[in-house]
Design goal:
The complex is a heterodimer of chains A (about 600) and B (about 200). Chain A is mostly helical and about 600 residues long. Chain A contains 19 helices and six strands. Chain B has about 200 residues and is mainly alpha-helical. Chain B has helices at about 1-35, 40, 95-115, 125, 140-155, 160-165, 185-195, and strands at about 45-50, 55, 135-140, 170, 180-185. The chains are: A mainly alpha (about 600), B mainly alpha (about 200).
Chain lengths: ~600, ~200
């Protein structure tokens, strides 16, 4: 844990803090249909034409049911759109490698995965997806699923901020404005920046390079006693160099917290994340919008202290996660150190030299605290505690900044629970910003949380005792269980990162993983959205009573501690038993030198 | 039912319009600007030798096994490593027997080929597989331990090799971000060019 690394951590949090207000101000304008931005001159005419083509009256607002219905319909169309393209990949254009169509289970899994902002990838990008599939079938959801998330957060914030009302905004206007004014302009600049660092952006077929040194063939070794046979590996004389429109896709995959890599190695691939500078900006871009949304919350509710308190709670949880993960990875693996690996180097398996221990740990915590899921190192090869942190961040519900929009609406559910608990403790009717929190609101909040727990633990239990579940494992012992637990946590949490040794799309064609993970993603996205929209619909109707001496303040130290306690209790209590069977027991076995 | 029909039009039209804007105009705009501003990088930072043959990308590692070359990190990409069409890490966990066996073999091989004493620690990056399997870099400490072997094979002084290593080291961004790394492919190409 070098001093230079501490400096980088301070730099990251400092820059993020500085960005929060400007992004928040811009978000406030984008999420107000009448808001004026400096891009109006260029974009406003296109915005108006789009509404006309859609047949949408931008002044007409939705109630909570109408808003939710529009989300569901829009998402259903998105799934079908992507499924159709993936199944027809072989006959569609921009496929210079002649890649075949995807199987039904894989196409379904992928379509659901990108629509739900998960970007779980059961496939390796460069060996499966044509340029057309990458650019159209997948990338459209990088924009739209992010826009949907931000829209829902805006609807919930409006539900809190408005009073004695019935409507929460117009879904179509929110989605179009977020995409046109926020996501597209930033992605454009970001993508060009990535190219300046070395990320590819073209439509050429893959190149073939002649290797500088021919790698001689490895002869086959027949089986001898206990030693298994080794297959022959032919001499290697060339290297296939991936090409394609990567930068445009990588930019929005980070900014929209989608995380679906163009290549299998995602942001660890030297093309997708070429330099430490590109890495720093990618990490910032994951948190940028989610961080700005807390300012938007403060602005909309006319209580900026509340917005910053929520931000501070997120940062405390985040910093604790980073420090734990970084400590574990810098400490390394005693088993490997006993073999002769320098103990000062930490655990470098599955990490890139240009990022090192610290930036790998930081990225892993950010990508799971947010629901991004892009990776710049392989979480599967982290030490037990190092791997526990990303897993735990997902299981907290990705409310630490969180996915764009999803993080804020998830955190507001915890805020409602926190004020409810505070109300119970002092024996007063719980209030949130002047609104009475009643039985219906608490039921909806708990429903949103319990659905996630049931999906993660239920599917994990099923896979862990099934032959199809165990067949996909890359590691034995508790680490194998962690691979399964991580997969369903990631899918349900709409994260998309993985303990990537797990084979979810086996060559045998067994569809169990693809289908169950897709169902987990649908549950995690939509069974959470519906109760949250119902909560918004309930809150928007309520009157705001003026604060009195007995009002519980939603800012400051007491509120912060209570909120952290609520997040940790729900996260920890639900998942501690499962975590004990996976990473926690593995940690102690690792210290003992036990191998599987 | 009326609702479905009423909202179906915006759902379908917006999907088509956003596909055109976000998946057509946007990537084409990025491609156009990149071609103009960073043509070489947009095409993969390709390296071409003096005969015009494509020999690799500055950003992608290649495997080297010969005595006279610096060796890159082990790679889990493809059957023989450094397969740039199959980027991948090993994904082996901390208590994996397979990983421990691999490390044991690699450490022994690294010690033998570089003449390193049995009690000396080995730089972690020298024997562990990277995340992408295409890591172009090794640590400066790893490069330094390989100098003696390469110097002998190429009949060069250690000092000259250290100069070449320094020249082909990508420094941490602004002296703060990330970690210094030696670009193995560029270093080895520089060695070959020197010979000629």
């Amino acid at each position: 844990m070098h001093s230079n690394d501490w400096l980088q951590l301070a730099l990251f949090i400092g820059v993020l803090a500085l960005l929060t207000k400007p992004i928040g101000i811009y978000l406030t304008k984008v999420l107000d249909p009448a808001g004026k931005t400096w891009l109006d001159l260029v974009i406003r005419p296109f915005e108006k034409i789009t509404y006309r083509m859609m047949g949408v009256d931008p002044t007409q607002e939705h109630g909570w049911k109408g808003y939710t219905f529009a989300i569901l319909l829009f998402s259903a169309v998105g799934v079908l759109f992507t499924y159709a393209i993936l199944r027809l990949q072989n006959v569609l254009p921009l496929n210079p490698q002649g890649l075949p169509a995807l199987s039904p289970a894989l196409a379904f899994n992928t379509a659901v995965s990108f629509t739900t902002n998960t970007n779980w990838q059961s496939y390796g990008g460069e060996s499966t997806m044509s340029y057309f599939s990458q650019m159209v079938a997948l990338a459209i959801h990088n924009f739209t699923s992010a826009a949907v998330g931000i829209s829902i957060a805006a609807a919930l914030v409006r539900g809190v901020a408005r009073h004695s009302a019935t409507t929460l905004g117009n879904f179509w206007v929110d989605v179009i404005r977020v995409t046109y004014y926020l996501l597209l302009p930033i992605s454009l600049i970001f993508a060009v920046f990535l190219v300046s660092q070395g990320t590819i952006q073209n439509f050429r077929a893959y190149d073939t390079a002649t290797l500088v040194e021919v790698i001689p063939e490895v002869p086959a070794v027949p089986a001898q006693g206990d030693v298994a046979a080794v297959d022959a590996v032919p001499a290697v004389t060339t290297q296939t160099i991936v090409q394609g429109p990567m930068a445009s896709q990588s930019a929005i995959k980070m900014l929209g917290t989608n995380g679906g890599g163009y290549t299998n190695a995602n942001s660890a691939h030297p093309f997708e994340n070429p330099t430490p500078l590109s890495n720093f900006i990618q990490m910032l871009s994951i948190f940028a919008i989610g961080s700005g949304l807390t300012w938007y919350l403060g602005k909309s509710t006319k209580n900026q202290a509340h917005g910053w308190s929520v931000w501070a709670v997120m940062m405390i949880l985040f910093t604790s996660g980073v420090l734990t993960c970084w400590w574990a990875e810098a400490h390394g693996n005693p088993i490997h150190q006993a073999l002769g690996i320098a103990s000062a180097d930490g655990n470098m398996e599955g990490k890139e030299v240009r990022f090192g221990i610290f930036n790998s740990s930081l990225f892993a915590t950010i990508t799971t605290a947010a629901s991004c899921g892009a990776v710049n190192s392989m979480h599967d090869s982290f030490t037990a505690i190092g791997g526990l942190v990303p897993l735990f961040m997902i299981e907290l519900g990705e409310v630490v900044i969180g996915g764009v929009g999803a993080g804020l609406y998830g955190m507001l559910v915890f805020v409602v629970l926190a004020v409810f608990i505070a109300g119970l403790m002092v024996g007063r009717t719980p209030e949130y910003l002047g609104k009475k929190i009643e039985a219906f609101d608490v039921k909806m909040s708990m429903l949103a949380l319990l659905v996630l727990t049931a999906s993660i633990l239920g599917f994990t239990a099923w896979a862990a005792v099934s032959t199809w579940g165990q067949a996909g494992l890359n590691n034995a012992g508790p680490h194998g269980f962690s691979e399964i637990l991580y997969a369903y946590s990631s899918a349900t949490g709409n994260n998309g990162s993985a303990f990537a040794g797990l084979t979810a799309n086996p060559t045998s064609g067994d569809p169990h993983y693809n289908v169950t993970l897709a169902i987990a993603m649908l549950i995690g996205r939509f069974l959470m959205i519906v109760p949250i929209m119902a909560l918004a619909g309930s809150l928007v109707k309520k009157k705001i009573s003026p604060p009195s001496a007995g009002t519980f303040p939603v800012s400051g130290m007491t509120f912060g501690i209570l909120l952290i306690g609520t997040v940790l209790l729900v996260g920890a209590l639900n998942f501690l038993p499962a975590l004990a069977l996976g990473p926690i027991v593995e940690h102690f076995l690792m210290l003992k030198g036990q191998l599987f | 039912m009326k609702n479905i029909i009423l909202e179906l039009r915006p759902a379908i039209v917006s999907t088509v319009v956003l596909a055109i804007v976000c998946c057509g105009i946007y990537p084409l705009a990025v491609t156009g600007i990149s071609k103009f501003a960073f043509a070489n990088k947009a095409n993969g930072s390709l390296i071409v030798d003096k005969n015009g043959t494509l020999i690799g990308s500055e950003l992608l590692g290649q495997n080297f096994t010969g005595e006279g070359y610096f060796h890159p990190r082990p790679s889990a990409a493809g059957a023989s490593g450094y397969d740039a069409a199959n980027s991948s890490g090993s994904n082996l966990g901390p208590t994996s027997q397979k990983l421990a066996d691999q490390l044991k073999d690699r450490i022994a091989a690294y010690r033998t080929s570089n003449g390193i004493a049995a009690n000396q620690e080995i730089p972690a990056d020298a024997v562990t597989a990277s995340a992408s399997g295409l890591d172009p870099h090794i640590s400066p400490a790893n490069a330094a331990l390989q100098i003696a072997r390469v110097a002998q094979a190429r009949n060069l002084t250690s000092q000259k090799l250290q100069e070449l290593i320094n020249f082909n080291t990508d420094k941490a961004g602004f002296g703060v971000l990330g970690v210094d790394g030696v670009n193995v492919l560029k270093l080895n190409i520089a060695l070959d060019v020197r010979k000629e």
